[in-house]
Amino acid sequence: MKRKNLTSDERKAATVEAVIALAASSNPADITTAQIGSYMDVTQGALFRHFPSKQEIWTAVMDWTANQLLARIDKVESDNPLDELEAMFVAHVDFVVTHPGIPPILFGELQRRGKTPAKALLQKLMAEYGVRLSTKLTRAKSAGLIACDTDIPAAAIMFLGIIQGLVMQSMMTGNSSMMREMSTRLFNIYLGGIGAKM
Q: Can you give the residue ranges of the HTH tetR-type domain (predicted)?
């Protein structure tokens, strides 16, 4: 990456992008500030002027991830809750395909022991995501578009579980492009599971 004069905010954003790019091909736990600096063509000292610690870099990555994913989901609007659910599913999958370094970072953060600011942000992301998802499922249920006895919390977990399973499959095979094709087929099975009335 060619060095150029950047504002503090631009440098922080570039650092987040560098970490996500490196995590696509490296174990996030093994990424060092030296690697990040090398990728950005800056010294570690320059990096630490913007992020006093490595943990603050991970917190910034998690904050960016939460904001970007939720922003994509919040753009989903339709008079039909089932169409909204599908658009939300597709937006989530597309986000992961576009940023393949994100899943390893999230899974790695969840494995850390104890509480960290990054893990707290991840938990907040999942809570806010869950509220949006449950709201769409409840709307679909109220409109009679899914089975009247649908367990909303379980349906929400199942929705996320399908995406997480797709992510794990793509990580094992090293083929993230298959996620888009498989997502349509899996979402149709999901609709069948919640008794969707098309």
A: 9-69
